[in-house]
């Protein structure tokens, strides 16, 4: 069933897997009815799914270079679409996206548009050409297209900074979920998450990550859609809520002035991260609001098209045409979750606010809300906080503090769904965080082992050596990321936006112009990467240490500073230095031609 | 493929590819920036029971992006086939 024949049987294998997962959910539902407690069901969900991923990881183990780096280039477009969707949809998308919409209103929707529209850039400007190139890693493209180790090394540095920022956020997210589902402290949850992540990626590299990511996509999309649709049916919001929650949006806009939205919190929370809802659900003001929306969307889109762990997924398809097709399927699979998240945010908010609904808490007696089971569960893990600051015995909106990250995780409990759904959501969130962390760790370790170790330090290393070095790096980076994640420096979402801005500041134009501008040369690319990345980082430091943001460009969108600097530096320096050799220019022509062999040899 | 060495075929193929890419990016920019920029005014209109500006940001633009990529691939495949550069080895 596995090896050789495995790719011919994908439909059957994943069909059986999906069926098995549904049977497992039903089994858990039966156990719940038999009186098994919530904690045990949560543990079973998390343990069962991680065991499956680890099994897939073990079955996909390999000692071949092209299997380790690019899954043997035999991943069909639809499956690569699913794997990319899982690779892409991080803990942030799964856990924090709906929470962000809940708290952020229109301003936050820039993320939703940015994280989908970015794939148009990937498809138009990047994926097919990088696939034709036949590289193993993104710095591999930069190094070969521009020539010289300097460009390659600078690209590796930017990749490591961007991906490492991102991976700490993912390990943080898996720690949060594991801590809640397994009822262990966050500090242990982080290491538990890392163990699962390494089990999936270490033995089989890209091949193992690909096939576990497909499995993780199936879990995460079921886990996202089922609770929303169930909640919607139970609460009478419509069979498929996506098309009918317009009324809920209108109702929220009606309620907002009544519940005193926008008042500053009267009391500060005793622990960080929790916040009071202050932004209207749908109230774009134009002007500065529009500017902030557009700048955020640009950074997220260009970041999507420059993040190496996404681009390297398109190196695994059999042909250029398949690479393009898989971009289309990637976005389709991502769309399924992204157009659900706003529905979830809207309906959950309505359930909390609308006094006509049984689930509402705002305006209810403080004691009554304080004793609700879900409120207590989340308050115990310091993710929710209530305070009767005006002492009137009633819970006001500005007395209800919540971490944005828990909106998705708590929705089933708020709507009064059986605990089996909470367990399912925890498994889905874990799948999302783990699949992204896998891809990121592999992107970093591969860049270091292939581009730094093999291409620069020891070009004579044999296959066995290369793959052992790759695995050792994977473990070291994973441990480093978990150590930093356990410090909880930023919220899940902040760190993710930084990763996108780092990537687009340094890599976007060198990658795009590598294909679209023949005249671009090595000094130009190096200047573009260093100045773009440097300008973005300096600006981030300036804003983050309390500097006044210029034109509303805050730490979430510092790519707006980095990208133009990168473009200008790259164009100016390229034009001031000699044009690239005819061979390089011929190589660019070759890249633009979708037929024929890839530029780099099959194994290199 | 026979067209590999023929630079004229390649030049024409690349010109058509570039034009398609520009068209796609124009549509992309309209749904990414132009329409969401005017969300406030678009909210005056209602679409499927949603305020239009809101609808675009949560569903409309997203759906357009998906369709746009499928459209682009369909046209690009045609361009590749016409030039005899279909990428089948």
Automatic annotation (TrEMBL), chain A:
Keyword annotations of the record: Membrane, Transmembrane, Transmembrane helix, Transport
Residue spans crossing the bilayer: 12-31, 37-56, 77-102, 108-130, 150-168, 188-207, 214-232, 293-315, 327-347, 419-448, 468-489, 495-517, 524-544, 556-577
Intracellular or extracellular location(s): Membrane
Segments forming a coiled coil: none
Pfam families, per database record: SSF
Gene Ontology molecular function: transmembrane transporter activity
Main localisation: membrane
UniProt topology in membrane: Multi-pass membrane protein
Name this polypeptide is given: Cation/acetate symporter
Similarity remark: Belongs to the sodium:solute symporter (SSF) (TC 2.A.21) family.
From TrEMBL, chain B:
Keyword Membrane: yes
Alphabetized UniProt keyword annotations: Membrane, Transmembrane, Transmembrane helix
Keyword Cell membrane attached: no
Taxonomy, superkingdom: Bacteria
Transmembrane segments: 20-40, 52-71
Domain Sodium symporter small subunit: 12-84
Ranges in a coiled coil: none
Pfam family, one: DUF4212
Protein name in UniProt: Putative solute:sodium symporter small subunit
Organism: Aestuariispira insulae
């Amino acid at each position: 069933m596995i090896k050789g024949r495995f790719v011919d049987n994908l439909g059957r294998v994943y069909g059986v897997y999906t069926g098995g997962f549904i049977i497992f959910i039903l089994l858990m539902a039966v156990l719940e009815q038999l009186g098994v407690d919530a904690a045990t069901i949560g543990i079973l969900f998390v343990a069962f799914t991680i065991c499956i991923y680890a099994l897939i990881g073990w079955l996909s183990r390999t000692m071949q270079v092209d299997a380790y780096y690019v899954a043997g280039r035999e991943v069909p477009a639809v499956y690569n679409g699913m794997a990319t969707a899982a690779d892409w949809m991080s803990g942030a998308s799964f856990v924090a996206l709906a929470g962000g919409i809940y708290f952020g209103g229109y301003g936050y929707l820039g993320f939703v548009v940015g994280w989908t529209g970015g794939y148009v850039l990937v498809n138009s400007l990047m994926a097919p050409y990088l696939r034709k190139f036949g590289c193993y890693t993104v710095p591999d493209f930069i190094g070969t297209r521009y020539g010289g180790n300097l460009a390659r090394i600078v690209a590796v540095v930017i990749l490591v900074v961007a991906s490492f920022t991102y991976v700490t956020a993912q390990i943080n997210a898996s720690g949060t979920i594991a801590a809640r589902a397994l009822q262990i402290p966050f500090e242990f949850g982080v290491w538990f998450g890392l163990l699962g992540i390494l089990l999936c990626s270490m033995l089989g590299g890209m091949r193992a990550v690909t096939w576990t990511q497909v499995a993780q996509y199936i879990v995460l999309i079921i886990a996202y859609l089922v609770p929303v649709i169930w909640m919607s049916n139970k609460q009478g919001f419509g069979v498929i809520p996506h098309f009918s929650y317009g009324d809920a949006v209108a109702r929220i806009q009606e309620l907002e002035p009544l519940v005193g939205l926008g008042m500053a919190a009267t009391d500060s929370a005793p622990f960080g991260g929790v916040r009071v809802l202050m932004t209207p659900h749908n109230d774009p003001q134009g002007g500065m609001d529009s500017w902030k929306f557009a700048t955020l969307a640009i950074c997220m889109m260009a970041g999507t098209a420059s993040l190496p762990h996404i681009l390297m997924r398109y190196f695994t398809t059999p042909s250029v045409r398949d690479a393009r097709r898989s971009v289309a399927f990637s976005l389709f699979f991502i769309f399924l979750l992204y157009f659900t998240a706003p529905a979830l945010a809207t309906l959950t908010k309505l359930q909390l606010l609308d006094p006509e609904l049984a689930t509402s808490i705002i305006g209810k007696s403080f004691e009554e809300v304080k004793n609700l089971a879900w409120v207590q569960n989340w308050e115990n893990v310091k993710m929710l906080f209530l305070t009767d600051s005006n002492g009137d015995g009633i819970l006001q909106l500005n007395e209800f503090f919540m971490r944005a990250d828990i909106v998705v995780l708590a929705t089933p409990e708020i709507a009064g769904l059986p605990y089996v759904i909470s367990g399912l959501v925890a498994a889905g969130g874990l799948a999302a965080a783990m699949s992204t962390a896998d891809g990121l760790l592999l992107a970093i370790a591969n860049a270091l082992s292939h581009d730094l170790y093999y291409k620069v330090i020891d070009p004579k290393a044999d296959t066995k050596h290369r793959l052992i070095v790759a695995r050792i790096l994977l473990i070291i980076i994973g441990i480093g990321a978990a150590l930093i994640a356990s410090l909880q420096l930023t919220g899940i979402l902040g760190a993710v936006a930084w990763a996108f801005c780092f990537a687009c500041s340094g890599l976007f134009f060198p990658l795009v112009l590598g294909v679209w501008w023949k005249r671009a040369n090595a000094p130009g690319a190096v200047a573009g990467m260093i100045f773009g990345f440097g300008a973005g980082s300096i600006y981030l430091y300036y804003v983050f240490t309390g500097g006044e943001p210029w034109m509303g460009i805050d730490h979430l969108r510092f790519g707006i500073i980095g990208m133009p600097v990168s473009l200008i530096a790259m164009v100016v320096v390229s034009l001031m230095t000699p044009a690239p050799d005819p061979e390089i220019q011929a190589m660019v022509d070759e890249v633009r031609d979708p037929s024929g062999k890839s530029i780099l040899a099959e194994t290199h | 493929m026979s067209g590999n060495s023929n630079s004229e075929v390649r030049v024409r193929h690349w010109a058509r590819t570039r034009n398609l890419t520009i068209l796609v990016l124009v549509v992309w920019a309209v749904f990414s920036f132009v329409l969401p920029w005017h969300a406030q005014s678009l909210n005056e209109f209602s679409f499927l029971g949603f305020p239009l500006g809101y609808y675009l940001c949560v569903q409309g633009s997203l759906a357009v992006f998906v369709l746009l990529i499928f459209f682009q691939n369909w046209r690009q495949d045609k361009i590749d086939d016409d030039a005899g550069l279909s990428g089948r080895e």
